[in-house]
Amino acid sequence: MDKQKELAFDIELASRVQQLLLPKNPPLCKWCRTAVKNRMASKLGGDFFDFVAMPGDCQMLFIGDVTGHGLHASVVMALLYGYLHRAATRHCAPLETALEVNRFLLSFANRSGEFDFYFSTTLFCADLDPATLKMSYVNAGHVPPLVRRAGKIHRLDTTGPPLGFFAEPALTMGHFQFEAGDRLLLYTDGITETFNDEGYLFGPARLQDFLRHHADGCAPFLDDLFALLRAYDGGAVPNDDCTAIAIDFDHLPATLAGDAGGESESAPGDKGGMR
Q1: pTM for this prediction
Q2: Which of 65, 71, 146, 163 has CB atoms 3.0–4.6 Å from 102's, for a disulfide?
Q3: In whole angstroms, what separates CA 1 from the centre of its chain?
């Protein structure tokens, strides 16, 4: 095997290993429906996400985007993903988790010198109480998740800067009370920063309009969203990684409104995305 083929093989193998880190399917849920989908700009990328079931029925979820994309971003993503998953399983506390991740990234940034910028990430980290549908979250520089309720869009704006830049970042908690019929959309900026052949961005307004008017379930919603992105960029290779999670709160939990049922949906992944 020549050097070029060996490198291509190593990158393909690394891509498959990276995909093993990410959840293959959304979690089974009695009180909501969930779908996930992602598409990498190249074989390797910097987007990450997960759902972590905690003791006492607390549900932790997080999504983030490491600075840059490609090989170097995938290395930092894998490093960060493992640490974040460990930190999240210790306590159902988004603020403490985000601060731990910040210290972890700074420890590498301080030793890396000229590469310190790459040890940084956005992060939306939340805990969701299934008994009350109340979500507490930290949004560290991440694009604002969107909630559709009765045709209106609510933004979960940032509550602090991205992680890995400041020793004591000004992070605060946000809170949101979900209701039956709400749809939560979490995503990375590769979606809104998709360009068409004239150089115009897909943009947050177009995404919000699509979310506002799409009437089907969360898995068809993500299928149609990614089809729209491919049509918008003319099928070109994405400029950045694209990840989206849609959660439909179709029913109130049993503690609020009798027995509730639900299901989990997985939107089929694009090449380089989830399988």
Answers
A1: 0.85
A2: 163
A3: 37
Strand-pair category, 146-149 with 134-140 = unpaired
Question: Quick one: which of 53, 182, 68, 83 has its CA closest to 121?
Answer: 68
Cβ–Cβ < 8 Å for 228, 181: no
Would you say 194 and 232 are in contact if contact means Cβ atoms under 8 Å apart? yes
Contact partners, residue 33, CB within 8 Å, separation at least 6: 217, 218, 219, 247, 248, 250, 262, 263, 264, 265
Compute the distance between CA of residue 259 and CA of residue 261 in angstroms, rounded to an integer: 7
Q: Which residues touch 110 (CB under 8 Å, ≥6 apart)?
A: 116
Euclidean distance between the first and final Cα of the chain, in Å?
28
pLDDT along the chain (275 residues), means of 10: 73 69 67 86 80 78 88 84 82 91 89 77 94 94 97 97 95 96 96 93 97 94 96 84 92 54 43 33
Query: Which candidate, 259, 78, 101, 235, places its Cα nearest to that of 166?
Result: 101
Q: What angle do CA 260, 261, 265 make, to 5 degrees?
A: 140
- 121 sits in which H/E element: strand 121-129
Residue 148 CA to residue 248 CA, distance in Å, equals 10
Tell me the residue type at 33: R
Cα dihedral 148, 253, 134, 183, rounded to 10, equals -10
CATH code, residues 26-264: 3.60.40.10
- Give the type of residue at 9: F
Q: What CA–CA distance (Å, rounded) separates 111 from 113?
A: 6
Cα dihedral across residues 85, 88, 94, 98: positive or negative:
negative
